[in-house]
Amino acid sequence: MTVYITLPPGETATPTAEATPSPTAEKSPSESPAESPSASPSESPSAAPTSPAASCTGSEAHKEYFVNAAKDLPWDVYCAVLPSGWWLQEAYYHRADEYLFVRYRNNAGVEVLLLEGRLCDVLSTCMDMFPVLDSASFDGLAGTMRGIGGGGRGVFVNPHSVPGYAFVNITGLSQAKVAEYAAAVIKVPKP
């Protein structure tokens, strides 16, 4: 089962400092309503204001999505905590294939990816071909900053294991910013 969250069709993603776009949770044709992150409140946890998911970048529906992902996936799930002007553009996870993919974007069009789970399969490579630039942190987990070509950089934690984690920027951010944003991700508590 793959569970998606995207912007509603036709909605433009123009965030403001006060609000982010409201997504809709979409489900694959084979998904039953009980498996959907939009199931009734009694069936799914809530991203309450006291929850660490409340700090995740995005709307309340985005935060709820991360709470549900933390419930559904067997590993620790993380979300990004980015400064004003960033928003969640797209996210999906697949339990059977053990991965979670999240794409954030800012007002300047810069994108970062948050990848979790089976990284070698999701990225079609295990990052070994990319040069090591430095050590880095991913919410306190020891990671490696690697150059990805074309000015891209990523922080990778346990890429050969499940779960592996990555925070990646293809272009537009300095190495220091990638390290700063990767260190600021937070673990979403399991319900």
Describe the protein's architecture and organization.
The protein is α+β, with helices and mostly antiparallel strands and 191 residues long. Strands 2-1-4-5-6-10-9-8-7 form a nine-stranded antiparallel β-sheet, covered by helices on one side. It has a two-stranded antiparallel sheet with strand order 3-11. The chain contains three helices and eleven strands. The longest helix has 13 residues, at 60-72. It has one domain. Strand 7 (132-138) and strand 8 (141-149) form a beta hairpin. The protein is globular, with a radius of gyration of 16 Å.
Name the features:
single chain; 191 residues; 9-stranded antiparallel beta sheet; two-stranded antiparallel sheet
N-to-C span: 20 Å
Kindly give the count of domains.
Answer: 1
What's the count of strands?
11
Oligomer: single chain
- The 3D shape can be described as globular
Secondary-structure element pattern, one letter each? EEHEEEEHEEEEHE
| Mean pLDDT level | 77
Topology:
Layout: E1 2-6, E2 24-27, H1 60-72, E3 77-79, E4 86-94, E5 99-106, E6 111-117, H2 119-123, E7 132-138, E8 141-149, E9 152-157, E10 164-169, H3 175-183, E11 186-188
Antiparallel strand pairs: 1-2, 1-4, 3-11, 4-5, 5-6, 6-10, 7-8, 8-9, 9-10
Task: Give a quick rundown of the structure.
By secondary structure, this protein is α+β, with helices and mostly antiparallel strands.
